[in-house]
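Annex B. Sample input.
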Amino acid sequence: MVFEVIPIGAPLLAIVAVFAGWVIWHRKLRRSVADTVITLGVIFMAIAWMNGISVLLGPGYLGFIGPFNEMLQMIPILLIGLGVDYSIHLTSRYREEMAAGKEVVEAAVTASRTVGVALVLATVTTSVGFLTNIFSPVAAIADFGVVATVGIGSAFVLMLGWKTPPSTSLRRRTSPVSKRYWNRLLTPVRSLTKTSVFSSTTNGS
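Annex B, continued. Sample output.
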């Protein structure tokens, strides 16, 4: 009866307007909304990656899995929960480092190096758990395990590699800092590579 007098879109627009005004007025909330939007964008990218890779693994290409079935419709919901969990851990550690007085890129690198290790272990154990489904005699369950593993790996890679740089850029309000972020993050790997090459050269001579 109420919506016969007032269109349902009116209260929805009012709620959106109030929330938008609150976000604009409250600075900390504005950052939280930005992190939420970035997280959702990365999750949608992970779902797209999962679907694309699953097509390549399916009939007509590699033939490793069968055609899409109803069980696979549950995996995007799984990725949303997992991606949000990844984001909460990364964002919380990043904000802790910022509160400790670190520079933006340094805080992002520290968060990725510390929380990233834990996320690697969580991703591996979760993937192994889902991959055990490949031993199921039911083809749909086996395909579910493979596709879920692909989605979990995609969510991890994208969340670690694409979520942090946009967040740091928004905080600085300057040019994108993804190049600096990756340079700092990969410094230990480069140092290890140089050390290995130097040792090999020394032993060879």
